Amino acid sequence: MPVFTEAIKELRERSGAGIMDCKRALEESGGVLEEAERILAKKGLALAAKKAERSADQGLIEVYVHAGGRLGAMVEVNCETDFVARTPQFKALAHDLAMQIAAMNPLYVHSQDLPPDSTISAEQACLLSQPFIKDPSKTVQDLVTETVAQVRENVRIRRFARFEVAKQSAL
Q: Do both 88 and 117 map to the same domain?
C-alpha cells in the first residue's frame, strides 16, 4: 500500500497530526485528503475545547523586531509544561503571534476584553479574531487551535505589547 503510506505522509505534513490520527482520518474519509483534513480539524477543535480548562502556567516570551528596528512586539504565550514550550511548533506559534501583533496592532487578546460601548470591530481590535497575516483564510484563534491539536496541551495568549518609534514632527 505505498499510495496509502504516501497519503498518510502528505496529510501528516499538511496537518501536523500524528500518524495514527492521519491513518484513521484517511480511512474515515475513504482516502480523500481534503475530507481527512476536515476530520482532523474537527478533532482538533474538540481537543482544544477539552483542554481549554486546564492550567497553562508555563510558556515563553517571544519578541519580534521588524527590519529597521522602528517597530517591535512582545507576546507571552502559555502552555501546560515547559517541555511543550521548547517544541518547534510552540516556538513557531509564538513567533507568528509576535509578527501578527507588530503588523496588525491589536488592542485586546479576546473579544470579551472589548469595552461594551466600543465602536471598533472585534476583528480589528482583538488578536484572536483577526485574520492571520500569513493565511487570511484562517483566524489567529484557528492558528492557536491547530497548535493545541499538535502539542496536545492547552495554549493561551496571556498578554502582549507593541512598540513603534514615534515620528518626529517638523518644527
A: yes
